[in-house]
Amino acid sequence: MLAHGLCPACARALGPYVGGRCRACGLPLPWPAAGQPLLCGDCLTSPPPWQGLALHGQYHGPLRQLILRFKHGGKPALAFLLAGMLADAASCLPLPDAVLGIPQHEDHLRRRGYNQAHELAVALGLLLSLPVRPGLLRRPADSPHQTGLTAAQRQRNAAGSFQAADVRGLHLWLVDDIITTGSTLRAASAELRRAGAARVDVLALARTPRP
């Protein structure tokens, strides 16, 4: 059977990353994984507020092109193909009480027409029969675009951007398309934990190299 409805050549080109990477943030590391999972220097000194990570691949080549079509090319229907890859990556994680995507401010949502992270979360919920609860996390302030910002600028940009509902005792999967510096996911996960989430796992399609 072809993986996720893809021909063999495309399945190989879009296959998961198999090299060494940080087990906490997914940053590609310059040595192969062997034995215990590895941590990058940043995660050793400042561990992220999430517990588990599911990541499909690196943000380059055909996977990057597919994500760009999904995110900026007006192709939200690609969420179902991409969610299949995400479901495979998340098979190592315990199933959550609910799934949600990184929210967008309403102005940003109006400009793009859809939130790619929410579309991924909905498709993933359908694939795995999991409840999708976007209302658990809001983005009341429209922060500036992250493109071109340094890691420190992204962190300042994301700080205080999110507002969580009462999530006491819940295990949540937080979905995004790409991890660049991780600042957005750190801020969102920290807010969910502050609001009482028992566990937050992060799921993303791809990780960029260190910016």
CATH topology group: Rossmann fold
Intertermini distance:
37 Å
Overall geometry comes to globular
Q: What's the CATH architecture?
A: 3-Layer(aba) Sandwich
Mean pLDDT: 87
Main CATH class: Alpha Beta
Summarize the helix and strand pattern as letters. Answer: HHEHHEHHEHEEHE
Level of helix content? 25-40%
Annotation field: number of helices: 8
Query: In order across it, which strands form the biggest sheet?
Result: 1-6-5-2
Structural class based on helices, strands and sheet pairing: alpha/beta
Tell me about the biggest sheet? 4 strands, parallel
Beta-strand segment tally: 6
Q: What ranges have pLDDT less than 50 throughout 5 or more consecutive residues? A: none
Q: Assess the beta-strand content as a share of residues.
A: 15-25%
Count of distinct structural domains: 1
Q: Compute the gyration radius: what is it?
A: 16 Å
InterPro entries: ComF/GntX_DNA_util-trans (IPR051910), PRTase-like (IPR029057), PRTase_dom (IPR000836)
Domain Phosphoribosyltransferase: 158-208
Protein name: ComF family protein
Family: Belongs to the ComF/GntX family.
